[in-house]
Amino acid sequence: MDTTTRWLTAEEQRAWRMFLIACQSLFASIDAQLLHDSGLPHGYYEILVHLSEAPGRALRMTQLANASTYSKSRLSHAVSKLQERGWVIREDCPTDRRGQIARLTDEGYAVLEAAAPGHVEQVRRSLIDALTPDQIGRLQEISAAIAAAAASTCASARAADSADEASGSCGSLTCGDD
Fold first, then answer.
1. What is the pLDDT of residues 13-72, one digit of tens each?
2. Is 29 in contact with 11 (CB distance < 8 Å)?
C-alpha cells in the first residue's frame, strides 16, 4: 500500500473548494424552496420521485436506498415519516419474509405533483439557467466521472454486502435481505 500523500496543488485545492461551495449552495437553495413551498425536505422529495418512477410506484427498501442518497437505516426512518403522513405504505415482500417494499400512495403522488413545478423552477434558477448548453453537457460528463470514481472506491466495501443481496439487486421487486 502506497503511503505517500498526494497533496492537492493550489489549483486543485481551489477547484475542490469551489465544488464544495457550489454543491452546498445548490442543495441549500433546493432544500429551502421545497421546505418553504411544500414542507418537504429534499430527501423526502427524492424518495417520492424514485417511487413515482418505479413500476407500480413501488421499490424494495434496498433498491430505494441504492437509488437515493440515504443509507438503509436513514431511509427506513424517512419512509416511516412519509408513512405517518400517509404518502407511502410499507408492504411485506411476497417472495421473502425479510424484505419490505415501499409503495407511493395516491396522496403521496398528489403531494409530489404539487411540489414538482416549484422544485423544477428552483433547479432551473439555481443550476440550469446559470449554464450554457455546452456547460450542461460538460457538467453531465463531469458528474458521471465523479460518480463512477466514487462508486469504484466504494466497491470493496459493498462486496461483502453483495453476496447477501445478489438475489434481489437486479431492479425487480424480487426481495432480498432488506
1. 999 999 999 999 999 999 999 999 999 999 999 999 999 999 999 999 999 998 987 888
2. no
- Nearest-angstrom CA–CA distance, 60 and 66: 10
Q: Cβ contacts of residue 23 below 8 Å, gap of 6+? A: none
Domains of the chain: 21-159 (1.10.10.10)
Q: What is the residue-averaged pLDDT of the chain?
A: 88
CB 130 within 8 A of CB 112: no
* Sequence-separated (6 or more) residues with CB below 8 Å from residue 131: 139
Taking residue 79's Cβ as centre, other Cβ atoms within 10 Å add up to: 23
pTM of the full structure: 0.80
H helical segments located in 39-132: 42-53, 61-67, 72-84, 106-126
